User: Fold Aromatic ring-hydroxylating dioxygenase subunit alpha from Mojavia pulchra JT2-VF2.
Amino acid sequence: MLKNFWYACELSSAITSKPKHLTMLNQEFVLYRNSQGQVFALSDRCPHRGASLSNGWVEDGCIRCPYHGWKYQADGSCIEIPANQPGVPIPKKARLNTYPVQEKYGFIWLFWGDLPEKERPPIPLLPEFDTPGWRAVYGELQWNTHYTRVLENAIDISHVPFIHRNSIGSGIADQPSIEEYDVRVGEWSASATVTANQSNKTRGFWKTILNRQESRPLRVTLSFYMPSISRLEFDFPIGHFKIILFIAHIPIDANTTLSKWIVLRNFITLPFADRDARKRALKTMLEDKPIIESQIPKVVPNHLTGELHVPSDNLSIVYRKFRKKCLDMGWGEESDVNVVDYTDDQISTDFLYQQIQEIARLGNS
Ligand code: FES
Ligand SMILES: [Fe+2]
Assistant:
């Protein structure tokens, strides 16, 4: 788990005046909304006897513990202990941790870390969300593995002709090689655009939408934002048709990830197509699920030499470098779980050396 980032943790619509329990980053949180609509996030454990505050209720913008009724303000301080006689002071340590929150793109974002406000990496931009002509649908899927594997799967193009050979990858199943691509590196993100020439074996929905008469191939832009957001943008060869799949891969604990996604489309924007858009996103992820959950170790190795890489892995190499940078800065709580070291593999080390040079060049340009 990496600290000092904003984490999309729940849909805005799920947070009401009824306290909501949330497990994320190996922590227990309680979230609620006051009568002005403002959202607050606090630690869920009452320091008196450890009861879960999410079983309590909201009163005058405060949260009341269900066990002995201690009342906490939104700033975490306890302002009332009903069992105390008048004049008995409230212990100084009777307070809950609080966490900054923002609402964006239909999600609640919680900042977990200790960086001052001005130094915090920003929430990723998703301008299409507020642009007229785009339609959004939401969905989610839980994975029994570490978020780093789930994130890397979402930005990995070379698995598509294999895991998805009978669905979205049917058109490239017979031509699985990936053209060389450049990685564009941002401050906390990176992206790459690849093109896919679909064969006439493309099936179903994709056959309809990938108009073979057009000369332009399908373009896919794969991006990640540290530490656990992926974004895929499909630019179809029909007019300006696009689909954007924006996913928050929420780290629940070391072995559990909850992916909450938004699918945005700028065509067939009437509600009747929502169900289908949701179903397609889920079907694709369910195809990935057994393979991704089979990966050992569950967490990606901290060092590049922990696994082998080929050129089509460039984007995930950059992700691993960003992650290593965060760990080196002391932002992580993850141990190094390398089980194999491929340092002696000549092909791998030569290739890695080139990658490191290239990434350094991109980072400086
Ligand atoms: S456990 Fe919360 S008030 Fe006692
Ligand atoms: Fe996939």
In short: The chain has a mean pLDDT of 90. Residues 140 and 260 are 4 Å apart (CA to CA).
